[in-house]
Specification:
This protein is mainly α and 142 residues long. It has 5 helices and 2 strands, in the order H-H-H-H-E-E-H.
Length: 142
């Protein structure tokens, strides 16, 4: 019987009696077939390899990506075009040179958004930075 490591008590492990089958990730050839079936414009070999790596060969993730990307993005010709802040929604970002996770840290900025450069904050530090949290709350409240 398989054990669900995410559920800590037997009372809550409703799926404990259901047999589980772990599947290996799809190989690149099978992943490319999924992408080709879903993308009438085709997918470049480099992009198919990148998407396979990004999704870990998960078929559902490949299908979701194929429907989310534009034809230009799927063909590899138009990777960065398009409005970064579409519609009437207001966007804001907070970024810092001390982030340490997002590299380059300036890649957080979005054209058309309110971009806030924080003096020196770590990636996880944002979660407890009361100044940044107040700025986020203020932005969301306006």
């Amino acid at each position: 019987m398989a054990h669900n490591e995410h559920v800590t008590t037997p009372e809550r492990d409703f799926l404990a009696e259901i047999p589980r089958l772990s599947l290996p990730p799809l190989e690149e050839t099978a992943s490319r077939e999924i992408l080709t079936d879903r993308c009438p414009v085709g997918v470049s070999a480099d992009l198919a390899a990148g998407l396979t790596e990004l999704t870990g060969g998960n078929p559902l993730a490949l299908v979701e990506l194929a429907t989310a990307l534009t034809p230009g993005q799927l063909s590899g010709e138009d990777v960065t075009s398009g409005d970064e802040t579409p519609g009437s929604t207001r966007y804001a970002t907070w970024y810092s040179a001390c982030d340490g996770v997002i590299i380059p840290y300036t890649s957080t900025e979005l054209n058309g958004a309110t971009n806030n450069n924080v003096a020196c904050q770590t990636h996880i530090g944002y979660l407890t930075d009361t100044v940044v949290l107040t700025q986020v709350r203020t932005f969301l409240g306006t």
